[in-house]
Design brief:
By secondary structure, this protein is an alpha/beta fold. It has 31 helices and nine strands. It has three domains: 182 residues, Alpha Horseshoe (Serine Threonine Protein Phosphatase 5, Tetratricopeptide repeat); 128 residues, no CATH class; 290 residues, 3-Layer(aba) Sandwich (Cytosolic phospholipase A2 catalytic domain), CATH 3.40.1090.10. A hairpin with a 6-residue loop joins strand 1 and strand 2. It starts with a helix and ends with a helix.
Length: 677
């Protein structure tokens, strides 16, 4: 049975797991080729289902056989320990702890394992494992104070969920009580919004000692412990005081209605406090719950008084001259920037590279060659056959599935190729074809590349800094291509990228299109893995590599970029009428137009948002139109309409992409190949 057939039983396996029959799954796996468990998304799903349903023996079987799965993260950044914690499977958790699970990992939203544990209370059933795990994590200060993308620490989450054990243990280990969320909320603010305050205020609130007093007959507020004095408090009307009291009552009611008890709702809390943010109210002065009625009354008076002062000062400031207002706004913007914290705590770079190496090595053990291509000499007057592959991120898997079906129907299709051209992610597919790699193996490689690549590096989603990392692609490239140069390929090849800066040492410093090939006499770096990586360095998604960015910035249609080199006197000098080209796109858009009713009256901002897509789509269509005009029936464009919209940088789409590739009607292209190729 093939690997694909084995993994296709995933639904049967999960049903058995859910019914407590994990031992049967182990028996089935042992009688089949089970390498897919260690390298595919379905294998990860099998592990997660085992953790969720407390199938300890199956978890042990998978981890022992595929150790890299222990800390393997899915596209949401979650590993098996996250699944076990969320489902409170303490047997699984204990096993994973003993296997030295990496608790420094963070999910896509920046939540560490400690964030999740803080949601769960300690009880008799989980006490031993819970304490053991907490104690291990508290040895690492980075984990203790790690903030998710909302700026919440484990202390915030513990306070919100009234988790007294964790909160006190965190404080005993010097957790930072002053760290604020991006909305400026401290752990004490979260404690106030919980159902029950689980710790003394003096341990959490740095402003505990502040006391506000007034001197009889004075028109100014005073402070015995550093509270700001304000000359703006003179001549206050009773109407302002009434407005302040009304606003205080509304704010307290608003907070009460919006209390939440889980980390997933922390964003809702910050939204519910927007009204308070608008009047710059500090939430640490809201009423503290206390068993002492006298203390509660005292704190309430202090809280009301603080609120009134802040409210009135804000009102007075809003009436000041516009110049001061502008300065204050600028100051607040600066403060807001300072509040944004280090967003996500990931595994260390060394740990990640080690894991990447394990995955790449496992893949290389499965390497299969369908038929290695030999060098082919071209004679004048013969057909010159070109295969062109557009870039498309995860959609290059779609191209691989189509090609696999084509060679099944026409086995000698690759044998007749004279030149392969590709860019972006498809550059690696193009090279793999020329190296004679089996298309099923290429699909596995591109699936692994997509799963490991398209995980957020930055919570700012590419606005500030790259969004993803291409480190796994580098590791896989080293394993697959080694020290090969483009000249080592047996057939002609052309891979495009854009050199954005020739460098400060260049007297004619400029930028230029780079059409890397093995058939023209050019002097440049011909390292094959670098050429592929440079072509796939999409701006915003990845950092530039060696000053190069993605080839699709030129035109996401490699044949259009390559044919001038084929027919040119300085290139291959092939007669135009002898060129036969199959150009495979990454799927025509579900909606292949831009609604004129929406865009017709659009302003600059709306156009700027769409401009990048416009440029890519327009240039690609221009390339297709010109190629059809020049080569007529000798040019075939395979770019089917996709039934659903597919994001090029979303690994969740992989299974859907495979299905679309398997179901696509290929009758016309098969007929064209038989008649023309």
């Amino acid at each position: 049975m093939s690997i694909m057939d084995d993994s296709s039983n995933i639904h049967e396996y999960i049903t058995l797991i859910e019914n407590g029959r994990g031992d049967e799954v182990i028996k089935k796996l042992e009688t089949q080729n089970n390498n897919w468990v260690g390298r595919s998304s379905r294998g990860l799903r099998l592990l997660f289902s085992s953790c969720k349903n407390n199938c300890l023996q199956l978890v042990k079987y998978i981890i022992e056989k595929f150790p890299h799965r222990l800390n393997y993260q899915d596209i949401y950044g979650k590993s098996c320990i996250y699944v076990a914690i969320q489902n409170q499977q303490w047997n699984i958790i204990e096993y994973l702890i003993n296997k030295s699970v990496n608790y420094r990992l963070a999910d896509k939203k920046g939540n560490t394992v400690l964030h999740y544990l803080c949601e769960i209370g300690i009880n008799k059933r989980n006490k031993e494992v819970y304490e053991k795990f907490i104690n291990q994590m508290l040895k690492d200060k980075d984990v203790i104070n790690a903030q998710n993308e909302l700026g919440e620490t484990a202390l915030h989450i513990g306070c919100l969920n009234s988790n007294s054990f964790v909160v006190n243990r965190l404080l005993d280990n010097n957790a930072n009580v002053t760290l604020k969320t991006i909305k400026g909320l401290t752990p004490w603010d979260y404690a106030i919004m919980s159902d029950e305050i689980c710790v003394e205020r003096k341990r959490l609130d740095p402003s505990t000692n502040i006391r506000i007093t007034t001197t009889k007959g004075s028109k100014k507020s005073k402070s015995s412990k550093g509270y700001r004095k304000s000359s703006k408090m003179t001549g206050i009307s009773s109407q302002l005081c009434i407005e302040a009291l009304d606003e205080y009552q509304r704010s307290i009611s608003f907070i009460s209605k919006k209390r939440r008890n889980s980390v997933s709702s922390c964003s809702s809390i910050t939204s519910s406090l927007k009204r308070l943010d608008d009047i710059d109210v500090k939430t640490e002065e809201v009423i503290q719950r206390s068993s002492s009625a006298e203390r509660k009354s005292s704190d309430k008076k202090e809280s009301i008084f603080s609120f009134i002062i802040d409210f009135i000062e804000k009102k007075i400031e809003s009436d000041s001259d516009s110049e001061n207002d502008e300065k204050e706004k600028k100051g607040k913007k600066i403060d807001k920037k300072k509040k944004i914290s280090n967003p996500i705590l990931f595994e260390s770079n060394e740990e990640r590279i080690t894991r990447y190496g394990i995955i790449a090595d496992e893949l290389m053990k499965q390497i299969v060659y369908s038929k290695k291509l030999e060098k082919k000499e071209y004679h004048s007057g013969e057909k010159f056959r070109v295969l062109s592959l557009d870039g498309g991120g995860v959609k290059c898997i779609y191209q691989c599935v189509l090609l696999k079906r084509i060679i099944k129907e026409i086995p000698d299709f690759f044998d007749k190729i004279d030149l392969v051209t590709g860019l972006s992610a498809s550059s690696l597919v193009s090279v793999s074809i020329l190296l004679g790699l089996d298309m099923e193996f290429v699909i596995k490689v591109m699936e692994a590349v997509s799963l490991e690549t398209f995980k957020n590096e930055s919570h700012l989603a590419g606005i500030a800094g790259h969004q993803f990392t291409n480190k796994f692609l580098k590791v896989m490239g080293e394993r697959l291509l080694g020290n090969l140069t483009i000249n080592d390929l047996p057939r002609n090849c052309c891979i495009q990228s854009f050199l954005i800066d020739t460098g400060k040492d260049d007297t004619k410093r400029t930028s230029k299109a780079m059409l890397y090939n093995n058939f023209m006499k050019e002097t440049y770096d011909k390292d094959l893995k670098n050429i592929c990586l440079q072509s796939a360095a999409a701006p915003g998604y990845f950092d530039p590599l060696n000053n190069h960015v993605d080839g699709s910035l030129l035109v996401n249609n490699p044949f259009y970029l390559t044919y001038p080199l084929i027919i040119g006197e300085n290139g291959l000098n092939i007669a135009k009428e002898n060129i036969v080209a199959l150009s495979i796109g990454s799927g025509y858009p579900t909606v292949p137009y831009y609604d004129i009713e929406q865009m017709g009256n659009a302003g600059l901002i709306q156009w700027l948002i769409k401009l990048s897509d416009f440029n890519i789509f327009a240039r690609k269509e221009m390339g297709v139109a010109e190629s059809r005009m020049m080569f007529k029936n000798n040019y075939f464009r395979l770019d089917p309409h996709l039934p659903i919209e597919v994001d090029i940088a979303d690994a969740k789409n992989i299974e859907a992409i495979k299905v679309m590739g398997k179901e696509q009607n290929l009758d016309k292209v098969i007929e064209w190949i038989k008649n023309t190729w």
